[in-house]
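Exercise: predict the fold of this chain.
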Amino acid sequence: MHADQRKKLINELSDLIKGGNAHVTLEDAIAGIPANLRTVIPDNLPYSIWQLLEHIRIAQKDIVDFSISKDYKTLIWPDEYWPEPTDEVSDVQWEASVKEISDDQQRFYQLLQDDEKDLFSPLPWGSGQNIVREAMLIADHNSYHIAEIIVARRLLGIWK
């Protein structure tokens, strides 16, 4: 792959992860949510907005950790991917979760920018996964759950 093609691919993958092209960004999806509604589970939905946000954080961190390190430790599905319901989430907890999502995306962007990494070669510690696939997995997974946040907000009457 030529350097200019690689750069274009990296930009496309980064934009896909950031969102906002065909779907709402995480930042827009969580903007202005009243603290007292973060943990409310809307009727007919299994999760609160907090649980969805935390699931995005946990799953994305898992994907990034897997993509970066052969020392990756597999999480147990579904127990270690989904937080338990809770009655309250502090601003500190909420902001820490949002920050970690952003920080892990930055770690992944750094991996994409590493010219030493072949974006299409299978990761030696995986079972055929490569960096491009993992980038698309992050984008796909996050956009799915961001849409669920929007649905929860609609049901709670706090979406546009």
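Check your answer against the key: The chain has a mean pLDDT of 96.
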